[in-house]
Amino acid sequence: MYTIREGKKEDLPRVFELIQELALYEKAPEQVTNTVEMMEKDGFGDNPVFGFFVLIKDETSDIIGTAIYYYRYSTWKGKRLYLEDYIVTEKERGKGAGKLLFETVLQKSLEENCTGMMWQVLDWNAPAINFYEKYSTYMEGGWFNCHLQSEEIEELLRKS
């Protein structure tokens, strides 16, 4: 019914469509500034910084999902797999495909000798929260996500 494999460069245009679909679902399509070309460089250049799986519907050979991950280092916990985005196209949700994809990433974290896996979920995304709760996921409170865009960093450094 479904096949999961490591992503290839030629998968990136479809994966990028899924990223845009997720951004629309999360009510932030204007925040996607990445491009397929950037993903090619960052995932398949001299120093790849992310990996990904694709979820394929066997009957159609269509890519219907992706899980994009990278490794981070926690001074408290050691090497961790960070699940950046986990996407199953809306019409395929609730059919077991997402479970298969998620468990593939869980397995990858063990194969790579990670001390655990981390990800984020929006507090209003009840379907995702319910899914993760089935895995007895610890959902941490009390932390803020912080970020600066490169343009903001440049401006701050010019002023200092």
UniProtKB/TrEMBL annotation:
Molecular function as annotated in GO: N-acetyltransferase activity
CDD domains given in the database record: NAT_SF (cd04301)
InterPro entries: Acyl_CoA_acyltransferase (IPR016181), Diverse_Substrate_AcTransf (IPR051016), GNAT_dom (IPR000182)
N-acetyltransferase domain boundaries: 2-160
Gene3D superfamilies per record: 3.40.630.30
Signal peptide span: none
PROSITE patterns recorded: GNAT (PS51186)
Coiled coil: none
UniProt keyword terms in alphabetical order: Acyltransferase, Transferase
Keyword Metal-binding included in the entry's annotation: no
One Pfam family linked to the record: Acetyltransf_1
Family to which this protein belongs: Belongs to the acetyltransferase family.
Protein name: GNAT family N-acetyltransferase
